[in-house]
Amino acid sequence: MTLSQSILATLTYHDIFDYPLTQQEIHNYLINLEVRAFTVKRELNKLFLTRKLVSKNGYIFLRGRSKIVKLRKLREKYSLLKIKRAQFFARILKVVPSLKLVAISGALAMENSHKNDDIDLVLITSKNTLWTTRFLANILLLPYKRSPSGRQISDRACLNVFIDESQLKIGPPNLYLAHEICQMKPLWDRDGTYRRFLSANKWIKKYLPNWRPEEVQSQSRKSKSKSNFFPLSTFHFPLAENFLKSFQLLYMRPKITTEKIGDHQLFFHPADTQKWVIAKYKRRLRKLRIASS
């Protein structure tokens, strides 16, 4: 891709989510090309002259899409309330010592939630405690979880990703997953887990080479251990882990559709958003006569 094509591709990708970008965000999420911010600014000015792009209130978007600026501002208001709710959930989960990181994912991580959206959370666990941690997290957040029937969704917790720290690399590598990783917003982090997670997924640089993580305050386990009412030793019994794994799989098996269930990673996505987003992105690029990589 040329720089001009990369900018158009970046805005096209975010347009799928009705999400205009600032100039800085275009640089941060620029697809495939590693360039300096001032170079992006210079190319943007050229694209404005060709009328392929439009700028309004500090946001940049494709021609004919001015309505998404108002939409982004509206969704930011919804999202700020949901983020406070997510922080409340994260404080509850701090009592589980086998949890190493709690983060917001999905639309909320970009402050682009709809009014009635739930709150997607990513949880990273200590080694060999995936199923024990999931069981305890679900028990603790039981009063606040979205209902399986879909009747109660708005502002409810959705624990849709669990990752064991022994296998932090996730895949398959693609643009959608790279965005999901970069957009994650840690609510709290123990022992530098967020940093290790990013290090294990360095492949994201192939797709988003300019992106840099924000500084995250890591909390040492030692300083927080007094606040945990579950004794740490209870999380190191293989029999308990195996029993809870069998118990939860037995409960989940009739309901599994597009979920990905592994020994070290769990992804609960009833709708396979990844496939349709990538397919839609490629169709739009073809209309712009831009080759996807």
Describe this structure in words.
The protein starts with a helix and ends in a 6-residue tail after the last helix. It has helices at 3-15, 23-28, 37-49, 67-93, 106-109, 130-140, 175-183, 193-200, 204-207, 221-224, 238-252, 273-287, and strands at 53-56, 59-62, 99-104, 119-125, 157-164, 185-190, 218-219, 260-261, 265-267. It has 293 residues and is an alpha+beta fold. It folds into two domains: 3-65, Winged helix-like DNA-binding domain superfamily/Winged helix DNA-binding domain (Arc Repressor Mutant, subunit A); 91-273, no CATH class. The longest helix has 27 residues, at 67-93.
- Which geometry do the CA atoms define? elongated
Distance between the termini: 8 Å
Main sheet properties? 7 strands, mixed
Integer tally of domains: 2
Radius of gyration: 20 Å
Number of helices: 12
Please state roughly what percent of the residues sit in beta strands, choosing from under 5%, 5-15%, 15-25%, 25-35%, 35-45% or over 45%: 5-15%
Task: Please tell me the overall pLDDT.
Answer: 90
The run of helices and strands is: HHHEEHEHEHEHEHHEHHEEH
Order of adjacent strands in the largest pleated sheet: 7-6-3-4-5-9-8
